[in-house]
Design brief:
81 residues; alpha+beta; WGR domain-containing protein; WGR_dom_sf; YehF/YfeS-like_WGR; WGR_domain
């Protein structure tokens, strides 16, 4: 699995953005996106999965998502979200 975690702190809330690229049992690659507010009880995050026929397209999509998140103020984070 290939992935990255990003965080953004605004107005006292830490927001997270996570993207993972994985190979599934059907011979496809999936890009899983997860985002939400960290550490707020009752605040559930959101998820979206997109499937690709090959690893190259999945990685290009994940890279575009990372670039977009960085423009919105997220920065790379090492560790668990």
């Amino acid at each position: 699995m290939i992935g990255f975690h990003m965080l953004r702190n605004r107005k006292g809330h830490a927001r997270y953005y996570r993207v993972d690229v994985a190979y599934n049992l059907f011979g496809e690659y999936s890009v899983l996106r997860e985002w939400g507010v960290r550490g707020v009880p009752g605040a559930s995050g959101r998820r979206q999965v997109t499937w690709f026929a090959n690893l190259r397209d999945a990685c290009l999509a994940a890279e575009a998502l990372q670039t977009s998140a960085a423009r919105r103020g997220y920065s790379r984070f090492q560790g668990e979200v």
